[in-house]
User: Fold this.
Amino acid sequence: MNIKTADEKQQKQALIAETALKMFEENDFYDISINAIAQRSHVAKGTVFNYFKTKENIFMHLLLVGYQEFFLQTLNQLQQAKLTTTDELKSFLLTNTKDLIENHLTLIKLNALRGPVLEGKASREETIEGRKKLYEVHEQLAQFIHDSFPSIDVKTANKIFIIQSSIASGLINLSNLDSFNQEPIPGNMDDFKVSILNDSMETFDFYLTGLLGK
Amino acid sequence: MNIKTADEKQQKQALIAETALKMFEENDFYDISINAIAQRSHVAKGTVFNYFKTKENIFMHLLLVGYQEFFLQTLNQLQQAKLTTTDELKSFLLTNTKDLIENHLTLIKLNALRGPVLEGKASREETIEGRKKLYEVHEQLAQFIHDSFPSIDVKTANKIFIIQSSIASGLINLSNLDSFNQEPIPGNMDDFKVSILNDSMETFDFYLTGLLGK
Amino acid sequence: MNIKTADEKQQKQALIAETALKMFEENDFYDISINAIAQRSHVAKGTVFNYFKTKENIFMHLLLVGYQEFFLQTLNQLQQAKLTTTDELKSFLLTNTKDLIENHLTLIKLNALRGPVLEGKASREETIEGRKKLYEVHEQLAQFIHDSFPSIDVKTANKIFIIQSSIASGLINLSNLDSFNQEPIPGNMDDFKVSILNDSMETFDFYLTGLLGK
Amino acid sequence: MNIKTADEKQQKQALIAETALKMFEENDFYDISINAIAQRSHVAKGTVFNYFKTKENIFMHLLLVGYQEFFLQTLNQLQQAKLTTTDELKSFLLTNTKDLIENHLTLIKLNALRGPVLEGKASREETIEGRKKLYEVHEQLAQFIHDSFPSIDVKTANKIFIIQSSIASGLINLSNLDSFNQEPIPGNMDDFKVSILNDSMETFDFYLTGLLGK
DNA sequence: GATGAATGAGGGTTCATTCAT
DNA sequence: TATGAATGAACCCTCATTCAT
Assistant:
């Protein structure tokens, strides 16, 4: 138990990270204590700090690794999809957005934390390293799109995914205006109702149409 | 003197709120202490609590009142603009978005706080009351658009403004990916660069085009 | 209770400081917790931090203020003593040393903490301010000696008090070599025995003789 | 290989001890972690604890063994010096003090830790054993002086070395009063300036003169 | 109404020490 | 014997909130 392989170490780190992720699905960053993460991971508080230097590092890790995985998966799917028309691409991207919102909502929530909260105390080196890896994957993805659709330049392809997250992230922020703490506000506020999924997809759809041409 | 008129009371409340707003332009919610707000308002800490039951109430107030004012102003401008074509409307809305981003960025930042942070401790009653007032203004604005452009139904008009804020709010979250704590990350990360203003306007432009028809 | 005069505030600060001093008579810096200081002062933990920004500030305060008082008292006594011969001066200084050791041992112990421990986290500004005040008093004392004994220049007079503390401080460090945690070590270790008081006085006596001439 | 000879064991213990000594030259006890000692020794953390029961034991060991070596060396030098007059003795002792301060400052710093910090958690048995060995060497040294200078009794000879360390130790504590965290305090504080070496030697010189007679 | 002193729960983090391998 | 992962007690400190005046 005392000498761990790199793999075993990664597993424990992943255990802690996944616990934090689960908790972040239900609570906000400031309502999640290291103590609670440790307990729910069945690990001592000190152990958490053996794997992450600060609390912020845990969540920065979730953000960076989570997005890397998401974009890698997207790249894979794209490669297998063998799209030929921009309509197919649009359709693919909308499905991809659905996946992002339905299965990776925490990523989108983490975006809001990154600048104002996480960067302040996350390790500069690790963050930059992770950010660069992420940039690479992002570029690969964009490059692949450009290769498949030469009319879409790499820069534009990159932006597509940034806007994708932006839209979803923004709609989370504007959701639930017709309720307070999950409880519906009495009276009619129907026009404040937002469906994160539907509205994201509609907005992104319009964006893609505008960007890629009718 | 120790019995204040309703007006005097409102003035002091406004003073505190404005101070908090100024501070929120420069710092994040969790980096702004009640103490600091009190000091910068030249008021005692206890006085702050005489006007706002909790810290979260202050910022919920800023959000609600700020948006009310913004939408009222928008309504005014709209009434004076006497638009006739949807192109003019689009143009108006884009200019309005520019105003929102350039002069009311705090509103957009506050959106990200609302659900996860503010609602937890903000007064339910006051929030609901404010939310209803806001809804009313929002509806008036939407109604006016509908009246001017019967093809745009009220629900759609409402949504326009929600998407407007969503897009800007989301782009804030995705900005500065090419730097860490304001310092640029060495190496090329150009494709991560985001211009909150330009990209918001472009995205909103495409959205409006899609929504309102070519 | 809510608006304290400067005087009342100083009293509470003094209360906390004195509690810390008492505890420092019995325990080492690292064995004294803020919690314990608060409890023994019948005050909440937070209150301690209302009066001292850091734990180190408390003890730096004790050191600076303690020495200021000691030197002021020494100056007073000196003024009243109206010494005329250097033998009288020597005698006075030895009695003064006795007082320092018997009634202000904590000051001497605090000297050992200052550089390596306190300066790291004590407020730079407050410390420098206190240090300057102390320097002033020290200079006054030295000046008075010089005025009374023109053959002793001010620099030399200053050094007298620095050596006085050094000797006492050093002898504390070398004391109790014949015991371990207060319990005597079995067997004869008589030649390791040190009397802080007697040996300080003897050493200081020899020092003064050497310095001031036979 | 996993059964080490006594000599091999001592070598590893010495390696760890020497590393700790080096680190203590640059940092304070509380700023040196077992982790850091282990790393700089190229040894695992657990290994450190195989050789020293507690952190305090390491430094107590440094103190005891360091002084033993210093006094043995002093004894050797004394035996070779073949002094005949007390003036020569004084001169020898001052040179010896210079050596202590210039090459063994850590010993003097360790004195300040011994009572308040180390004894609390150092092994009683090992400390007492080391202290007795030290006492023996100390006595030999004193005895040799007495044999060479019958007018100096053994007790007095012993005390000479205790005062030697006391003076140096005390002056360390009172040094750097004219700076804060290595940075000079602005303004004139010349009379607070201390030269550990010069002032130790002067003080010790006067002490010896007083003790041994003019 | 205004004040600001007092509160204390709660936070993140450190680090000597243990012990299974 | 060597290892280093796991532990968890203990620490200092923050800050929204209360309430006596």
